[in-house]
Amino acid sequence: MEGMIWMEDYTVKTITPEEVEKLLKEGNDVSIIDVREDEEVAAGKIPAAKHIRLSEIPERLDEIEKDKEHIMVCRSGRRSENASLFLQEQGYKVKNMTGGMLEWEGDTK
């Protein structure tokens, strides 16, 4: 229909920092992607996380496995939500870590 905007599903699954920490402690094979900027990551990131800046995600899609679920992380959960929406639109399975690194109490490196 002309003039009508088709609304995709603009919601993403979420996971809490505590749930992520539990998955890691249980030894689960978890893919975590940290989308923060270099200087933020230098201050500490989840050791198992892969760092791909938000602005680089479109050009680095080939580094993200499509058949695996990914947990997206940033400082507060907002940029990672945007990354999650983008990847979801591309057919990836993603969850956004709510609260981001501000609420992360687990190990960092």
Descriptive notes:
Helix content is about 25%, strand content about 20%. It is of the alpha/beta class and about 110 residues long. Strands 1-5-4-2-3 form a 5-stranded parallel sheet. Helix 3 (about 80-90) links the parallel strand 4 and strand 5. The mean pLDDT is about 95.
By helix and strand content, what is the structural category? alpha/beta
Task: Work out the radius of gyration.
Answer: 14 Å
Strand order within the widest sheet?
1-5-4-2-3
Share of helix, binned: 10-25%
Largest sheet: 5 strands, parallel
Shape: globular
Content of β-strand: 15-25%
- Encode the helix/strand succession as letters: EHEHEEHE
Unreliable spans: none
> How far is it from the N-terminal to the C-terminal residue, by CA?
52 Å
Q: So how many helices?
A: 3
Overall average residue pLDDT: 93
Strand runs, count? 5
Task: Sum up the structure in keywords.
five-stranded parallel beta sheet; 109 residues; alpha/beta; globular
What's the short story on this structure?
The chain is of the alpha/beta class.
Task: Present the secondary structure layout.
Elements: E1 13-15, H1 17-25, E2 31-34, H2 38-42, E3 49-51, E4 69-73, H3 78-89, E5 93-97
